[in-house]
Amino acid sequence: MFNPLQGISDLKKMRDQAMNIQNALKKITTTVEKHGVKIMVRGDQHIESIESNGKSDNDIREAVNEAIKKSQEEAAKYLAANGGLGGMFGGK
Description:
Blueprint: H1 4-27, E1 29-34, E2 37-42, E3 47-52, E4 55-56, H2 58-81
Antiparallel strand pairs: 1-2, 2-3, 3-4
């Protein structure tokens, strides 16, 4: 027998899994130092810090984070308009 509530339960599980992954990615950090600039990026693509010649630059950090966020929003719009990830596998 068809259980319409099963779909809701499956969606909640998928959402919970996605949230767990997102929280785990926030805990991963990568730091790169090059030419006197040090940048720390979290696994969720959020810039944690930017230093140039030992001085913090929060204005640049905030601008880069805003640019990344807008880029992700545009990518999400594109995926939604083109069948999402299912479009990669021939579905729409």
